[in-house]
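User: If you would, consider this record:
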Amino acid sequence: MNKNIQYHPTAADSTGSTKRLVILGAGESGIGAALLGKQQGYEVFVSDGGVIKDNYKQEMAVNHIPFEEGQHSWDVILGADEIVKSPGIPEKSELMKKVREKQVPVISEIELAYRFSKDAKIIAITGSNGKSTTTALTYHIFKTAGYNAAMAGNIGISYARQVATAPVEYYIIEISSFQLDDITTFRPHVAILLNITPDHLDRYDYKMENYVASKFRIAMNQTKDDYFIYCLDDPEIRNYMNEKTIYSTTIPFTIMEPLKKEGGSIANDQVNIKLNDDPVIVSIYDLALKGKHNLYNSMAAGIAGKTMDIRKEKIRESLTSFKSLEHRMEYVATVRGIDFINDSKATNVNSLWFALESMEQPVVLIMGGVDKGNDYSAIKDLVQEKVKGIVCMGVDNKPIQDALSSATPAMVNTSSMKDAVQEAFKLAAKGDVVLLSPACASFDLFKNYEDRGKQFKEAVREL
């Protein structure tokens, strides 16, 4: 707690009045916004109702940014000219109700960062699944081509921190619906919408249409000079686009049908990316990322590269040389003929569906965590086909048991990662895969999905 820190607004805008910027939440996004705000002459104050990590506190102290933790000083917060809200703070919270009542303008960290990076080209990627992989792959394409690019947002460091500390010509940004909810002018030159499946519905009044509309905000400020790259096979995306106007140049990708116009499609076991009369053609067997879902991710990233005039040879080279991300279908080890795969980043049912769909060996599945209102029946057929046992890991495993116990021969409950890995090892035989793909948030037993993935890897190494 930092009760001794006083808030003394001193910065002024062009009219001479004080610009007081309050940052709610002191995670990576909030600290990035604080650093950028300070650099741009705002008087910044950071408020977090929880405990702030020591490294972030040190960073704020070094940069003379006042902050508080474990409390919210209402007079300071409600006296702000503008608030940057952490994407993790729901609108239903007491904090946001008071802010909205007082009508203090609220923006997201990506909106703040955009104000000071408009001269750059911004490639923004969203979707319910595959965002991190597609963002990393797109960045790999740009770096392989020698472009002055950075990867930021929900992957790595925050967009605002990147703008403040190491500005570049091309920003490849992973963006969540929560971040898009509080934009006003943010306009990516290239927007990618990978898919929309039920997720975080508790934040959207349990209405799918609200969540869909949130995802489409990525294109709301785009013009005909911009590009909107989207999955033609996704029914939610198709339905929305049939009813609403997208003003940017739309480029689809699909694995279901050949495309007569520009976009990405599959024919004769080859990925075809057609744009600017110079197609990129890659055998699906040469792609670095395997599985049907990664065909979509590879096409989306390849199209983004083509919109920025990256040579087809560089795109092809990148799509075949990319190394997958930690905690996303990450091979860990083989123990007594059993493969262990870490897919801790799978925090919803659709991610788990994709993981199971790509499996060719019998699976012992470790899943569970904080249930976000998941419909596990969506994976029942795949579980029946591929899963020989489920190890549940979480405080409340009843929804998983109710939905899937009849679809698999064995189901075990555990309350720690170590126990989960040991139980899975007992259920597995030589030639099987033990797959950690939780389909849930991690906050009941772990700090976050990274902590969950690391604990899984440690437990596997101890076998």
Remarks:
- Residues 111-321 form a domain with the UDP-N-acetylmuramoyl-L-alanine:D-glutamate ligase fold (CATH 3.40.1190.10).
- The first strand starts at residue 20 and ends at 24.
